[in-house]
């Protein structure tokens, strides 16, 4: 279960960012921001022309003592960042991938909406619900 | 600020609006957001709104104070009446109609609700004389309204809005008047509505207007002032709609069910955009259409999400009806559901229930929108929500399906991805067949060792391998997969067999000459490395020369020539062809026959045999290994190992060796027959001759090794026996080599795992290394 989920646009500004312990939001915002550097590094290193699923999923970007940050980039350079608690060791790579897949799917649904202008903050309730389902159930 | 004079009505109206915008309850400042919403609800273009904002001084101040607000409102009224926006006109214009706003504010909803109720009850809400003209149309409008009504059974809970429960018959009329009056004025102000159907949307404003008593107070003036009939009609429609809604909702359990009239209306609307009822409305067209409803983009976006069932960016007729219905409901004040109600699901909607709807339908088209709604039924939401069919089971089912499929995809993708993605697993994967350089090297070493120790002949052989070792390693690695022999073993075998032939040739020579050939053969296979060394040290150069010389000749023949036409009668093995594996060719006795047969066998067996022998020898009997080849033929294994070692190295080398072995074979016909027919073949007699000399030296060593092996009839005469023996030896060599191969692979895996673990540790120690 993620502690924070963020969607970053191609120009590296956030389209959607949501964290569970709302009091520590700034910290997660900062973490996501710094993780963008890692993402850039990873995607610039991949020189392959074809972007298959493997490349979309960037894997663990970097771990800190409190949490781990995973990254995923779409073909249009929209980045998804998931921050999970380090104590949650049971999360497997598979699960993170499935979370990213769901994020990607719901993001494309948002994009398909003609009323959504790319670049606007994502306000879709469906997207919100999917993200909430993936977040840690904070008490 | 410019002075502003407001009529009483205006004053009241404006203050009310201000209060509605005064979310912070400061009584002084209207929140920008609310104000802007209100302005937008005035259905003015954005630039006009901006202009108004600027004119009233809000931009200057940064907020909407009361005076700014009032000025803005007046400007809105101006704009809506089509007059130029100018501050001077603010006070000069008399009888300026009140600004109209499409969407009633939430705060106003209750009031509207009240109005609703009142209207229904009284029917003569407005002081003004009702405009009757539209009665007819109103009825039509009424029909349209059902859509909304269905949506709100809830009304009970909310306020008066609950009007739905009231008997339809009365309300419509009441509404008619009501609406007409209210809406008429408003509508009038509106920019002309595209005839068709959206008028209801425009009219939406009236909702609030109609409902609220206060509104009514305000609206009359505007109404009186200008309204054309048409507009009133349209507004009437909206009223009708609400009436209908109310009427309908009372009877329905399902708030979201689309009535026939509604559906017909929707279908007509659909036709205006897309004549083909089975076609799709593209997203952009739908966007324009629904934008006319003046709903906030956010809500429209949500409606789209709900209604675009297949997420294709286009609306089918069913989806369109669902979307339209949702818009109507929203306009009437119902909250949007989180999930698409079952009744709105595409598959559930039945089309064309035209019975009894034609008229209303047609009228609807003229009139305005079913949607128009009035307003704000105050949030009858709660009931609505409760009534929603929970189902969306379909939705859920759909979701599960999609999730399942996606998950399955996920699984498959993951599966495919996980393995490679995980370096550990990748590394742990079985090592490719081809021989790794390390293995090759080992083989070579063994061959060398065996070769050098055993015989000189092997040295040339060794020489070849070593010189070509680099190439061979690569080549072997390349060659292995390609070796026809079969698996890695064979490739390794071939490798060894490469050397083997040479050594075998050498051995053969020796054997021919005496016993050396055997030794030669024995020597060569086991430790490839030794051989090369030996060869280098020895007549390697000469041998190499000869080998090289022989190679071209042999090379051409290699491919297919089994029997190199070595001069040596005894065992001149045909050839190298055999592919370096095959070098073994028959044991000394076999001679041509051997060679002919062995090549076939050699390729595979010798390799195996050689390699395993080599290893075994290398481990156990380093000396023996070396000597084996030299011990002429005995070493089934050795020669084979040697051969395989050689073959592993390279085809090229093999060729060379073939040549050499052929030569040596020629020479070494006397060499130990058994094992290395290949060697014999490989080596040319010439090469073998010098080797022969060496062979005897190594033959001793080989002999010992050979001794362990089943005795191989050395008599040249016993071809069959020799062949059989060679077969046996080859098989043994094969198994040995196979074992060796597996062991080496296991070692490789272990090493790789160690490497992985080390890398992981490194990563852990330097987590930010890549930052």
Could you characterize the architecture of this molecule?
The longest helix of chain A is centred in the first third of the chain and has 21 residues, at 25-45. The mean pLDDT of chain A is 81. Chain A is an alpha+beta fold. In chain A, a hairpin with a 5-residue loop joins strand 1 and strand 2. A 5-stranded antiparallel beta sheet of chain A has the order 2-1-5-4-3, sandwiched between helices. Chain A has 4 helices and 5 strands, in the order ββααβββαα. In chain A, helix 3 (93-112) runs antiparallel to helix 4 (125-134). The radius of gyration of chain A is 14 Å and the shape is globular. Chain B has 771 residues and is an all-alpha fold. Chain B has 37 helices and 5 strands. A two-stranded antiparallel sheet of chain B has the order 1-2. In chain B, helix 18 runs antiparallel to helix 19 and helix 31 (591-620) packs parallel to helix 37. The longest helix of chain B has 47 residues, at 719-765. Classes of the chains: A alpha+beta (139), B mainly alpha (771).
Characterize this entry briefly.
The complex is a heterodimer of chains A (139) and B (771). With 139 residues, chain A is an alpha+beta fold.
Largest sheet of chain B: 2 strands, antiparallel
Q: Give me the secondary-structure category of chain B.
A: mainly alpha
Biggest interface between protein chains, with counts per chain?
A-B, 29 and 34 residues
Number of helices in the DSSP assignment of chain A: 4
Organism (chain B): Phoxinus phoxinus (Eurasian minnow)
Pfam families (chain B): EH
Region (Disordered) (chain B): 150-193, 359-384, 447-541, 553-694
Domain EF-hand (chain B): 295-330
């Amino acid at each position: 279960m993620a502690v924070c989920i963020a969607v970053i646009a191609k120009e590296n500004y956030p389209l959607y960012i949501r964290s569970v312990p709302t009091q520590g939001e700034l910290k997660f915002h900062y973490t996501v921001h710094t993780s963008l550097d890692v993402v850039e590094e990873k995607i610039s290193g991949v020189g392959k022309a074809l972007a298959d699923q493997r490349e979309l999923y960037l894997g663990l970007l970097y771990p800190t003592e409190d949490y781990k940050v995973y990254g995923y980039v779409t073909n249009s350079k929209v980045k998804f960042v998931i921050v999970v608690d380090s104590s949650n060791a049971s999360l497997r790579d598979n699960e993170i991938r499935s979370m990213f897949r769901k994020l990607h799917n719901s993001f494309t649904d948002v994009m398909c909406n003609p009323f959504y202008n790319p670049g606007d903050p994502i306000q879709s309730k469906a997207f919100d619900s999917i993200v909430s389902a993936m977040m840690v159930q904070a008490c | 600020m410019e002075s502003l004079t407001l009529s009483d009505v205006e004053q009241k109206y404006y203050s009310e609006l201000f209060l509605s915008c005064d979310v912070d309850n400061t009584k002084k400042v209207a929140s920008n957001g609310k104000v802007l919403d209100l302005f937008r609800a005035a259905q003015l273009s954005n630039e006009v709104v901006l202009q108004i904002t600027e004119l009233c001084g809000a931009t200057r101040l940064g907020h909407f104070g009361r005076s700014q607000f009032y000025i803005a409102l007046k400007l809105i009224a101006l704009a809506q009446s089509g007059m130029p926006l100018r501050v001077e006109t603010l006070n000069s214009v008399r009888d300026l109609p009140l600004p109209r706003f499409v969407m009633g504010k939430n705060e106003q909803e209750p009031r509207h609700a009240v109005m609703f109720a009142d209207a229904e009850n009284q029917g003569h809400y407005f002081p003004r004389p009702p405009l009757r003209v539209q009665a007819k149309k109103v009825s039509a409008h009424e029909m349209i309204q059902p859509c909304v009504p269905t949506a709100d059974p809830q009304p009970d809970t909310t306020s008066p809005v609950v009007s739905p429960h009231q008997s339809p018959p009365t309300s419509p009329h009441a509404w008619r008047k009501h609406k007409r009056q209210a809406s008429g004025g408003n509508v009038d102000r509106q920019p002309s509505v595209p005839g068709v159907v959206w008028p209801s949307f425009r009219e939406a404003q009236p909702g609030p207007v109609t409902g609220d008593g206060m509104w009514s107070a305000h609206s009359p003036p505007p109404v009186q002032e200008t309204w054309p009939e048409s507009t009133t009609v349209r507004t009437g429609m909206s009223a009708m709609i609400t009436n209908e809604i109310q009427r309908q909702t009372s009877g329905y359990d399902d708030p979201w069910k689309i009535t026939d009239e509604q559906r017909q209306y929707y279908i007509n609307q659909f036709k205006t955009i897309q004549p083909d009822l089975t076609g799709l409305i593209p997203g952009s067209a739908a966007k324009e259409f629904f934008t006319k409803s003046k709903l906030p983009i956010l809500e429209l976006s949500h409606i789209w999400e709900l209604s675009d069932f297949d997420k294709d960016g286009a609306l089918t007729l069913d989806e369109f009806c669902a979307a339209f219905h949702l818009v109507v409901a929203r306009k009437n004040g119902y909250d949007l559901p989180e999930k698409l109600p079952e009744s709105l699901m595409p598959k559930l909607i039945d089309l064309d229930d035209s019975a009894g709807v034609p008229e209303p339908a047609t009228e609807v088209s003229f009139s305005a929108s079913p949607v128009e709604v009035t307003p704000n039924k105050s949030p009858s939401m709660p009931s609505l929500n409760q009534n929603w069919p929970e189902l969306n089971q379909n939705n859920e089912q759909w979701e599960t399906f999609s999730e399942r499929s996606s998950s399955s995809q996920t699984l498959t993708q993951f599966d495919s991805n996980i393995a490679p993605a995980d370096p550990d697993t990748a590394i742990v994967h079985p090592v490719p067949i081809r021989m790794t350089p390390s293995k090759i090297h080992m083989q070579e070493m063994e061959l060398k060792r065996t070769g050098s120790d055993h015989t000189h002949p092997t040295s040339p052989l060794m020489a070849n391998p070593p010189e070509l070792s680099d190439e061979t390693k690569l080549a072997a690695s390349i060659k292995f997969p390609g070796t026809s022999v079969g698996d890695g073993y064979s490739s390794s075998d071939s490798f060894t067999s490469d050397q083997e032939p040479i050594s075998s040739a050498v051995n053969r020579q020796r054997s021919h000459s005496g016993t050396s050939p055997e030794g030669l053969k024995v020597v060569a296979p086991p430790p490839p490395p030794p051989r090369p060394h030996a060869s280098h040290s020895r007549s390697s150069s000469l041998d190499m020369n000869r080998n090289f010389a022989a190679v071209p000749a042999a090379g051409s023949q290699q491919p297919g020539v089994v029997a190199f036409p070595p001069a040596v009668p005894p065992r001149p093995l045909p050839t190298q062809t055999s592919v370096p594996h095959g070098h073994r060719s028959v044991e000394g006795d076999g001679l041509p026959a051997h060679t002919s047969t062995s090549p076939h066998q050699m390729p595979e067996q010798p390799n195996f045999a050689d390699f395993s022998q080599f290893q075994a020898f290398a481990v156990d009997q380093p000396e023996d290994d070396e000597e084996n080849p030299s011990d002429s033929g005995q070493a089934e294994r050795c020669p084979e190992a040697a051969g395989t070692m050689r073959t592993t190295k390279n085809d090229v080398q093999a060729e060379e060796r073939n040549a050499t072995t052929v030569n040596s074979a020629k020479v070494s016909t006397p060499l130990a027959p058994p094992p290395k027919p290949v060697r014999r073949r490989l080596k040319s007699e010439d090469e073998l001759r010098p080797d022969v000399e060496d062979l005897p030296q190594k033959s001793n060593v080989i002999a010992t090794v050979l001794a362990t092996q089943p005795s191989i009839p050395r008599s040249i005469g016993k071809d069959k026996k020799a062949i059989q023996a060679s077969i046996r030896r080859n098989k043994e060599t094969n198994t040995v080599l196979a074992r060796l191969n597996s062991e080496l692979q296991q070692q490789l895996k272990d090493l790789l795992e160690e490497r992985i673990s080390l890398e992981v540790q490194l990563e852990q120690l330097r987590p930010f290394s890549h930052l």
